[in-house]
Amino acid sequence: MENSQIIRIESLVKRFPMGKGEFTALNGIKLSLGQGEFAGLIGPSGSGKTTLLNIIGSLDVPTEGSVTVLGRSIGALSAGEAARLRKESLGFIFQSYNLFAVHTVYENVEFPLLLLKYSATERKKMVTDALDWVGLNDKIKSKPPQLSGGECQRVAIARAMVKKPSLVLADEPTANLDAANSHNILKTMVSLNRELKTSFLFATHDDKVISYLRRKIFLLDGRVDNDVIISN
Predict the structure, then answer these.
(1) Sheet of strand 72-73: strand arrangement
(2) Which helix (H) or strand (E) holds 27?
(3) Which of 14, 132, 200, 207 could form a cystine bridge with 26, CB 3.0-4.6 A?
């Protein structure tokens, strides 16, 4: 099932109200993504990267067209069904980390599991494994203000990966990191992609991220301008 399709997008249009008219952020997107891909949406600010990522992540809905993620039609989901899809099957990594400053590293990574009714024993094993993947088991009792930017982003990756999601969506995940931390983070993501067969989809214009991608989907003015698969 490694090559099974997990995202299918047909004739996607997304418009937003603007003054007395509308702004078309996405205009006729056609795209599919298979299991285990390490792909990126690439383009300048305003090209539609984040809008497309948000719709795939069920944080927004299409104006026209269809977006199917893991067999679910995003436009047809109720708010509760969309929340369940995110909770059970998707992981999110943002440039701002979005960690809880008053909670420990362990508690931050554990949080998604509390919503899934795992036992305390199961949660401990899963959190420990996730922190081991990103090399942070020695920081388990630390809180985010005590960590470096690179360590905070690794916590965010562990939190996204702890439930072994089918798909991880990463929006400019290296924007606040220096080059060394960026490469360490990206190498960690590549390892997790290969080990767990989790699909990764980035929204980025960072050359460091782009150099690691095995598929580059270029967006321009809300359209797919080019789609390049990098041979191994």
Answers:
(1) 21-34, 5-18, 64-69, 72-73
(2) strand 21-34
(3) 14
- What distance in Å separates the CA atoms of residue 135 and residue 117, rounded to the nearest whole number? 26
31-40, 82-91, 145-154, 178-187: the lowest-pLDDT one = 178-187
Amino acid identity, residue 230?
I
Which residues neighbour 154 within 8 Å (Cβ) at sequence distance 6 or greater? 134, 135, 136, 184, 185, 188
Global pTM value: 0.91
Cross-strand pairs, 198: none
Q: Which two tokens stand for residue 75?
A: 């436009």
**pLDDT-based confidence at residue 3 (cuts at 50, 70, 90):** low
The pLDDT assigned to 188 comes to 87
Structure tokens at 204: 């980025």
Residue with tokens 């290296």: 174
Q: Give every CB contact of residue 100 below 8 A, 6+ residues apart in sequence.
A: 107, 108, 111, 144
Domain ranges across the chain:
5-229
Tell me, what's the pLDDT at 2? 43
Give the span between the Cα atoms of 205 and 221, in whole angstroms. Answer: 14
pLDDT tens digit string along 127-177? 999 999 888 999 999 999 999 988 998 899 999 999 999 999 999 888 778
Contact 12, 26 (CB under 8 A): yes
CATH code of domain 5-229: 3.40.50.300
Radius of gyration for the chain, computed over Cα atoms and rounded to the nearest angstrom:
18
